[in-house]
Structure formats: structure tokens, C-alpha cells
Give the backbone structure.
Amino acid sequence: MLTGKHVLLIIGGGIAAFKTLDLIRRLREQGAQVTPILTKAAEEFVTPLSVSALAGTKVYRDLFDLTDEAEMGHIQLSRVADIVVVAPATADLMAKMAQGLANDLASTLLLATDTPVLIAPAMNVRMWEHPATRRNAEQLRQDGVAFVGPNAGDMACGEFGPGRMSEPLEIVAAISQQFEKGPLSGRKILVTSGPTHEPIDPVRYIANRSSGAQGTAIAKALMAQGAEVVFITGPADVPPPPDAQVVRVETALEMQEAVRAALPVDAGVFAAAVADWRVASASDQKLKKSLDGLPVLSFAENPDLLREVSRMSEGRPPLVVGFAAETDDVVAHATAKRIRKGCDWIVANDVSPATGIMGGSENAVTVIDANGVDVWPRMSKDQVAQRLAARIADHFSQAGDH
Ligand code: CTP
């Protein structure tokens, strides 16, 4: 319930604005008080009258509305709420927020507020994936703005992909979550995920079958428990969680740099399938077929990131969790791997092709720590992630060193 909570709802100008009418209704059902702000563009999609009728209150629209200034200045308006919610957060609004512009009522309130801000982005998939929007999203995350969505799916513009605004109930849940302090709130956790690509030449590379599904699910589950997640991912099939701080890399060496830059953290979860070797003889130019026979590739060993972090003499994360992808004698190999790498827990799984785990949606894992072996039944990767996040939360609450 959101009884007694005051939500300042900034409605941006996108087709998804119509969903905010339902959002207002849902918020009020939960006992929240909603003060709506309409941008000029939003008025093209919803009328001030319908918004005001549903919110049961006045709608604020113009920065220079003198009556409002007399009633309540915009600075005061930005402070009365317990949370500011922007839905839909258009690419334009996000850009303004990231830049700190204040040229209308919505952007001025966002710059002046001292309450938490949650945004529900909605835009065409190309706009969402544009480097400018990605930069802005990253900036906003660093500024402490929380995100809900966007979801992937069919879009009003006829395209498919991430960009759809979250559904009203998802936004209500995300708002509620802002008021609940999860057991991992205040914890910064690093998650590596996906495969790495090791170039042979500018157009060819060596990779593996990791989809990034398990790492992504873990990042989402940790965030659902309140953790701040730095998600370092190789080129995965599964899109990264939209509300994590995402660092995209290609190679193991780039991943090493990103991991080092993310430290210090409270915990590291190393779910990436990092290539063990890179091509030492990688060419700057595309290798040509030649009459002299087949190309000969020579390899160099990649750094072992899990081992490096586990064995740090200073600033080692208090909890380091590794994965062990095995095809035989899973527990014995994983137990030895935990000792060899120096991590605290190892999550072992059988990736032999018959299990369908690598690239599939399910996983059957065994968690090994200094106290023993914990065999989990086969379940979805999301459930594995939730159980692992709960185990991490439990570990910290028992350690009680917050
Ligand atoms: N890992 C890593 N850096 C590497 C290789 C692996 O951080 N260069 C991490 C993985 O993210 C995983 C764990 O180490 O958490 C084990 O990965 P795995 O491929 O099972 O082990 P390897 O060290 O490659 O051992 P082997 O291939 O001999 O089984």
C-alpha cells in the first residue's frame, strides 16, 4: 500500500501517456495522493481535464502560471512529494534531465527536487538504443535516478524491441519498492555476465555459447533486493537489465579493466563465461585465404578475473561468488576450482550439451562454500537468481557488518 504517500507525477509527451490515466487510478487505489504535471507535449496525448478528474486535484502545466506561483512556488511543489515519477519519460525529457536543463515546469521541478526520482522510459526502440539516449540513461543512473522498464515488445510505431513503457501495475510496484528498503540496499554488487569475444582479425572472433541469461537474471534479482548493481557484460543475447549500471565490453582484457574500475564493491558475482585464451597473433587486417595453406593461430592466456579479485590482498570484496561450468564430475571439479580460485562460493553447473543449460532457460546448480555442498533442484534461471540473491542477502544479514 502507498497510504499517505505523495507522488508528483510528471507526464511526458509520448503515446504511452494514455497509460498514465490508469496509473493515476491505480496509485489512488493504493492510497497515494497524486499531483500531476503535464508537459506541453503531453497535452497532445491526454487532456488536462481527464488527468485532473482522475487525480482528483489540480493539474500543473506552466512554469509561469502566476496563480500557481502565488499558491505554491515551483520549488515548493518539487519538495512536497515523497517521490517524483516521470511517466512516460521520453528521450527528450531524459536528455533534459541528464543535462540539467530547466526550461519548463517539468524540467525545473526535476532539477529542484530533493526527493527520489523514478522514471518509466518510453520511446521508439532505435531512440532507446541510440548512443545519446544510452549516455543520458547512464548519467541519470549515476545521478541516482531509478528506472522501471522499458519493456520489450510490439510498439505503437510498428517496431519491436525495448522501448515500451512499463505497465501501470509494474510502475506502482517499482514505486512501492522505492519505499521499501530491500535487505541488500546500500550494498554495491558487481556482476560479470555473457561471453567474451576474442578477435582473430577485425571481422572474426572466438566466442562461446553463453547467452548472458543467468548473469542478467542475477543482476535483476539483486536489484530487486535493493542492491546497487554494476553489470559488466560481454556481447550477450539477452539484453542487460535496463535499471542496472551497465558496462559493455567485448574481450576478457576489457572486462578486466571494467572489473577493476568497479571496485570497491561489497560482493562480486562472476557469472561471465570469459574466454580462457585470446589470439595472441590477432591481425589488424582481415586474414586472406592464401596459397601457403591455413592460417596458424597462436594463443595467449587471458587473465582470470575471478581469481584476480578473490586473491586481492587489499580491498578484496567481502563476498566473491564464482561459477563453475563443468561437463563431468561436477562437484569434485567445482570444489577444487573454489580452492584454486580463492572465491568464497562457487555455483557449479553441468553444461554438457545433453542438459540444455548453456543457452537454455533452466539451470540445475550446486552451491559450494567452505561449509559444504548445497544441491539445488533444476529450476528456471530466474529462480536460481532469486535464490542466489536471497542467499547473498542472508549472508550479509548474518555477517551483520553493514
Ligand atoms: N572466470 C574469470 N576469468 C576467466 C575465466 C573464468 O573470471 N578468465 C570465472 C568465471 O566467470 C567463472 C569461473 O571463473 O565464475 C569459472 O569459470 P570456468 O570456465 O568454469 O573455469 P575456468 O577457470 O575456465 O576452468 P576450466 O576451463 O579449466 O574448467
Q: What stands out?
A: The pocket of cytidine-5'-triphosphate is lined by residues 192, 252, 270, 272, 274, 276, 302, 304-306, 322-325 (CB under 6 Å). The two ends are 28 Å apart (CA to CA). The chain has a mean pLDDT of 91.
